[in-house]
């Protein structure tokens, strides 16, 4: 028999990843009764995959994120789960983290703030009355829970709550609907990085980033930087493909250092032509990801100097999804308005990462450096015609180019804190989310250390 229970709260956050976690923490810290619903048995989402976080520093090496985003790293560092922010000629910066310590720190911060976390619970339905979300129904362990909140925040990544509530959206890239590919991250041990870098130094044709913006992206840089993201081995992959040993639709090998000595995160799998908001396609994508990990381990052992004895250490518990639904907000930030005065005046978060578009149908990446951080206006978080709900993370209202920068974890965390702050202010004032005073919101965010 299914149990049914009802919970009431001020703020309900659906999804405990980079967009939802900081929202819940900030709302609770502002005195609001907050429930955080997470479908997995851990918090962190993509941050629990082994992938380093992008977006903490801008192209000049200046700090671009503060607030909860920086607090997470400070706490992780105290446990040995982070090693700082490292400038990068290609990615602007990389912040390696331990996925397991991130899970612990996430729970620690939620517990301290008074967030009620509901693990292993999936969003089932939403109830709308007079254009307002009034209930989110979740299900887990034979129990249906009806969450009646004053306001809701969608931190699901795919915008599941907004979708169920009927908010207008589009899927994939503007004009084509093609979605950026997915990746299944995994980690390896028992490798010799010096041997690998010696080989890279002796074979410059195996460096995959040759554009002008990548000046200094060479073995000297990788040896000097404890935190780095290596991209290359193009010619070795061509050789492996010619011999039938490489079928992953990718022409470059990518590894990312981690805070754990002797462990690398591998970001080389590539699952194309799937819509991860569809459960059947998501399942097929996961199947393909696991088989790609098997093939990539064989490739590393056979072809990569220094990785002859490399061993698989772990596989991400979730598929890394770059893109699915984009919702239409009160405001839509575009490439043309990224640096407009109005954007700067209304910004509640910012992105310092580059415009990074992965082709969803072939092996190709269009990367355009972002010289200066750009602001993300509050209106991008507010659905155009739905009350009681805020968008967070990668579901916000932006065009393809802006999304390609703002989709990474750093900006998503900043947007999440902005959403949680706005939600608390809305409850305090007894007003609609769309009526929150942006000036007051910005001031509160700055008081809490946020940068924009």
Explain this structure.
This protein is α+β, with helices and mostly antiparallel strands and 452 residues long. It has 2 domains: 3-74 and 99-177 and 324-447, FAD/NAD(P)-binding domain (3-Layer(bba) Sandwich); 186-315, no CATH class. The chain has 12 helices and 20 strands. The protein has helices at 21-29, 67-78, 99-113, 160-164, 193-202, 219-224, 234-242, 279-303, 341-346, 400-406, 409-429, 438-447, and strands at 3-14, 34-37, 86-88, 92-94, 116-118, 122-129, 132-140, 143-154, 169-171, 186-189, 229-232, 253-257, 264-266, 311-315, 325-327, 347-351, 355-358, 365-368, 374-377, 389-391. The strands form 6 sheets. Strands 1, 2, 5, 6, 7, 8 and 20 form a 7-stranded mixed sheet that branches. A 5-stranded antiparallel sheet has the order 11-12-13-10-14. β7 (132-140) and β8 (143-154) form a beta hairpin. α1 (21-29) runs parallel beside α3 (99-113), α1 (21-29) runs parallel beside α11 and α11 packs across α12. It is globular. The termini are far apart. The model has no long low-confidence stretch (mean pLDDT 97).
């Amino acid at each position: 028999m299914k149990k049914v229970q009802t919970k009431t709260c001020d703020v309900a956050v659906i999804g405990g990843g980079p967009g939802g976690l900081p929202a819940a923490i900030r709302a609770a810290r502002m005195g609001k009764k907050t429930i955080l619903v997470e479908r997995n048995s851990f918090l962190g989402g993509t941050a629990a995959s082994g992938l380093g976080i992008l977006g903490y520093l801008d192209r000049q090496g200046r700090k671009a994120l503060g607030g909860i985003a920086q607090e997470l790293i400070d706490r992780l560092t105290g446990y040995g789960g982070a090693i700082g922010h490292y400038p990068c000629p290609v990615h602007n910066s990389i912040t390696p983290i331990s996925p397991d310590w991130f899970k612990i720190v996430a729970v620690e911060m939620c517990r301290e703030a008074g967030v009620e976390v509901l693990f292993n619970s999936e969003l089932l339905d939403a109830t709308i009355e007079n254009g307002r979300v009034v209930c989110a129904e979740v299900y887990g362990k034979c129990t249906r829970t009806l969450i009646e909140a004053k306001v809701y925040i969608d931190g699901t990544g795919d915008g599941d709550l907004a979708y169920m509530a009927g908010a207008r959206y589009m899927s994939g890239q503007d004009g084509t609907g093609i979605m950026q590919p997915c990746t299944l991250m995994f980690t390896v041990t028992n490798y010799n990085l010096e041997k690998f870098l010696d080989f890279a130094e002796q074979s410059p044709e195996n460096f995959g980033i040759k554009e002008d913006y990548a000046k200094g992206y060479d073995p000297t840089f990788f040896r000097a930087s404890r935190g780095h993201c290596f991209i290359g081995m193009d010619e070795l992959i061509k050789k492996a493909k010619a011999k039938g040993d490489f079928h992953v639709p990718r022409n470059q090998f990518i590894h990312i250092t981690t805070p754990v000595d002797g462990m690398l995160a591998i970001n080389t799998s590539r699952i194309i032509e799937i819509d991860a908001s569809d459960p059947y396609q998501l399942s097929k994508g996961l199947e393909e990801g696991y088989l790609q990990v098997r093939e990539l381990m064989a490739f590393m052992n056979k072809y990569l100097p220094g990785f002859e004895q490399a061993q698989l250490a772990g596989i991400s518990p979730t598929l890394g999804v770059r893109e699915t639904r984009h919702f239409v907000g009160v405001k839509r930030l575009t490439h043309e308005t990224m640096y407009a005065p109005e954007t700067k005046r209304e910004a509640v978060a910012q992105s310092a990462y580059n415009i990074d578009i992965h082709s969803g149908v072939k092996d190709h990446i269009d990367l355009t450096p972002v010289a200066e951080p750009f602001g993300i206006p509050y209106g991008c978080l507010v659905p155009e015609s739905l009350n009681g709900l805020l968008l967070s993370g990668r579901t916000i209202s932006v065009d393809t180019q802006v999304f390609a920068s703002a989709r990474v974890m750093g900006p998503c965390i900043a947007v999440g804190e902005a959403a949680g702050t706005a939600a608390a202010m809305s409850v305090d004032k007894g007003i609609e989310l769309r009526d929150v005073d942006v000036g007051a919101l910005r001031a509160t965010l700055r008081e809490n250390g946020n940068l924009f």
